[in-house]
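Explain this one:

_____
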Amino acid sequence: MKTEMDQIVKLSDEDSTAELQKYLSSITDDRLITVITNGALKAKKVGTMIKGILKGSPCNTTEGSNRRLLVYQHCIPLCESGDLKTEVAADIIGLLMLETHALSGPSLAQLASLFVEAIKVGKMGSGKSLELFPTVLTALSACESLSYGKGELSGEEYKKQLINSLCSSRWDPQCVIHLTTMFRDVPLSSEELRFVVEKVLRMFTKLDLQEIPPLVYQLLLLSAKGCKKQVLDGIISYFKEQDLSQEEEQKHSDSLDLEVQSIPQDQLRHVEGTAILHIVFAIRLDHELGREFLKSFKTSYGDLCPFSVALLLSVARIQRYEEQVFDLLKGAIIKSFKDEQLQQGSKFLQDLLPGHCSVAQMILDTVRNSVFGWDHVTQGLVQLGFFLMDTFGPKPGPFGKTTEGSTTIARTPAQQTCKLGGQVLLQGFKMHEPIRGEILEQVLNRLVTKIASPVSHYLDLFSDIVVSAPMILLESSSKVTETFDHLSNLPLATVQGLLKAVQPLLKVSMSLKDALILVLRKAMFSSQLDGRKSAVTGFLLLLKNFKVLGSVASSQCSQAISSSQIQVDVHSRYNSAANEAFCLEILSSLRRCLGQQADVRLMLYEGFYDVLRRNSQLASSIMQTLFSQLRRYYEPEQDLLPPVKLEPCITAHGDQVYLQEPLAHLVTCTVHCLLWLQNMHRSAKSNADDSDDDDEEEEEGYQSELQTILESMTRRMIKSELEDFELDKSAEFSMGSSVGVKNNIYAVLVMGVYEVLMEYNFIKANYSKSRFEELMELFNRYHKLSEILKEKCGKGKVSTHKTPRSLLSLGFVSTLLTVLFRDSTQSREEALSVLRSNGEFVRYTVSVAVQKIQQLEETGHTDGPDGQNTDRTFRFLCDMTSVLMWRYTNIPSAVEDAGKKEKRSSLSHLCLEGLLRIFTTCQQRYPDRMTQLLSTMEVSEDDAEPDDDTEMNFFYIRQFQRALFTQLSGGEDEFNSKEAQLLVSILSVLSRQLKPSSKQFVQMITWTVKICKETSFEDSAFSKGLLSLLFNLHILYKSPVGLLLELSQDIHSQLGDIDQDVEVEKQSHFAIVNMKTATTAALLVLSQVDRVLDEVDWLIARKKSQTATDKSGSGEPTQTAGQQDPIEKAVTLQLGTLLTALNELIQTALLPGTCTITLLRELTRTYSILTTLVKYYIQVCASQHGALPARFEKLVKLSGSHLTPQCYSFITYAQSGEFSGGGADDKKKKKRKDEVNTAASAKLLRETKAIPNLIFSIEQYEKYLITLSKKSKVNLMQYMKLSTSRDFRINAATLDAALQEQDDSQEVSAISYWNEQLQNSSVFPYTFTVH
């Protein structure tokens, strides 16, 4: 054997080709194969031998050609067997590649088939010989013709058949990567490439997870040839499916107790991370791939998934794509939230479409997944979080003012998006150490730099970060300290939020606390008022939150502690002497504020009570401060009136008069602190008898002295007349003069002092009749002054009087309401009758309660003690709800109003207003506690106690329904419109708590429909409220188009036709629609039409994007010819009913003005949406060549026969109304000629703009109908009639009438003048005559 090998090599080297051929012919095929195999295994001269065999086998002879084929057929499996050394196999394949082009066509075909068969049976495991396959295929495609079956094929076609056969056969998972690599070297047509890519993507699921990243890499290299979108979509959809199945497994793992996960989560995440890196690397090198990637997400966010979000964020690190990616994600998030809101608000859309895919959830999933080492994603997440918070954060109000008090719930899509940004950053901060510093720095930078716009969202985020990771934050305490340096320049709200947020840190970090105190001391002497206010805020917060101050032991500092542990650490005593000294030092700093502006003093008075409650050790110091301040303004001479000095409370600067000392707030603070301390002492005495005598004596000393002062003030304030304060009826109160301003300040201070003394005396009275009589005296004085103020300030053209905020505390108002209406204790009866008999006092109490609730609704807190404490505030709300509800339901307003014909609201009306505000506040501020609020209201004996939340809510709905029914069952004379409107508003608020799927909701809607059908009161404000309630309920129950049609028929029937000769058929589905309320109803119907059009427009846009995706994806029609898509069917039916309703409205003689313009606008919008629908069908016809649905043809016919002709008639009517009905009468014209001209021209401009818009949209609709007719081969224009409405019109009858009305003398003189002129002319020898 060795000799044969040597002989071949020798003859080859000698260049004697003839002898070599002769020698090779003498060796049998089997022998030759054995020689090659042995040589290859021993790795001796095998390359040279094969070269010699090929040299001695010329292609032009059959024998040589067959021998060559034999060598190839043997060497390929030999290399693949794995028995050879790698370099030997590589040499053999290299040799064979060089000689492939010399093979004949049939030999190449046989070789190619050999490869295909080997792949099919899985013999290409190592993939070494696959390097030869591309060369074979390339050579094959160069052949002119090859026999195939019974016929012949060109080489190119033959190659195509081979690839097709290869891609449709089974591949061994082991050789998928080798094959993908191999196809990179094969010249492929786009169709062949598509076959290959589809096959490789199908193989993904057969492969082990670890093999996915290299395959992704090879696929991306292959995508350089084309099919970029297909490759990316395939990779993303594979990971999307893996994520879903992994999620499903996690859900069921608890119930099934699965021992082994089929997809380990960490492994999947690491594979995803590697795949993302490969894709981003490929996009960096191939910008076409990047463009394709972004393009696929621009049309619809439905294709997004956590993997593609992570991929987008990684791509954002490439500078040229950064802006595009964030814009794309921003658009997807906001659109997702808007779509969700639209779907939640409409039962029609909920029934039509399946569940909503939430982009926000995907982004939060991406944050969670990024914990598995996705460092390339985290930077993008930080950028995205801040991008969303910056773009969608709260905006400054008018004049740069920020809206006070942020609501707790994110309601609008923009608020939800901003909240999502915060969640991304918070989760990122918790999970990834490297980005913590950057997040913290950026948040603090924004707090300092964004002075002009609200930063409440950043404060919330910062606060959450502090609570979730206080010890991590301490590592970056230098950044927080830097922020403190800017405190005196920041807005007060920002300072308050920032200091509240860092509170837990101050308790563990002495250095941070010291830095803050230094800054606050500096701020105390700031030239800016806001800076000084910030200092007061900071010091008060320190006093409130540090019961005992002291350093935490270092061993505790080293432990990671949660905020709950911080609380525990701080409340244990460390060094009380040092702490007390520290607190007293802060108090001495605060005392300096008592010489500053009223605003600063006010903050101090409002904060002292909370400090005292939290830190009672400071009682004597605080009380002495207040006491000494109060004595400055107290008149000690008992015989002198009034008991307070008002002069020092004001200061003048030039002509301006300012408040210097908010005296009433000072007295309030003193009273509340005193009362709280007395309560404390009472409870302490009952608990323990022995205590420190010295302290107690000192405290009792100033307490009794303060009590004496307050008693004296009460007595003398009752005796004081208004003249004593220089505030009698003759005093001036206009805000234009300094005297008027001074008197106003005095009046407000005196009224405040009266209120504080009323509260103090009520608590001290302990239900004594004589003390209550004194209280009434105080009230009468207060009321008298209040009436003078109202009367004087309300005299001008515009009433400048705004009731000053009451100084009664919320707790006291709540107690007062309860004793006035619900207290039936026998022993108190006599004393309480003093209060109850004074109607003005009862009314005042209820109106103060309403004022307090309103303040809570707007700002989230109230003035006075406990105003900032949400739990106590909520408890007071519950108490007031119970009392107001009882008062309203148990004392009918008819009884109360008998004999009173006053302008102002009745008590029942005030109670209702209070209830409405409480329910609204509760929904906004305490959304989870609505049931708790309702459950505190007492149920009357004859009603059973409701079982669950919905029942409880519905029980109160029924109470208010009864009240409204009682209102409506009386005659129209007894009907109280304002009260009825409030009842409807309350029902609207309470009905929001009902689940639309519950039977109570159906009962509610049935009742509302019944009321609307049966009530015929001519009150437009009430009907507006009731119809709004009906629409809001109806849209959550089913589509409102049927309801709109019925209402439109009613409106047409009530207002009559635009053609006065037409008799409208009398219809009355809803009695609430009558002559007086029809215009209001029409405007409401049109607003609902707009809402329905929004939904239809959204559905069409959704279908269009689906059609575009299908077209680019499969290209197959999505539905069978006979069956219409449910969304298309729903859209057509909605529009059909809407057109019928609009047909009724455009024949209605609507009043010129808002109603007409709104109708014209809605018609314009309807035609625009019809045009969009037509464009959609043009798109469908272009891609699918299907027939148009019969329903759509009917819709087009309806628009042509019912709507367009009527539109043109309505335009004529609107224009005639504009000139005839639009003017004012003659007297007004003379009075305000200029104003009327301006108003008339503006009105004309508005109306004339609405008409051309409508005509344009009709013509656009018809234009696209012509296009659709051509595409679909259906003549849709047969239903459209050519309009003459836009032609030049002369209405002969109108012209005659106008001529007849002219004055005869004018007419005659004009005619004689013209006759004279014409007779003098030689050109026109004619005369005018009038018939």
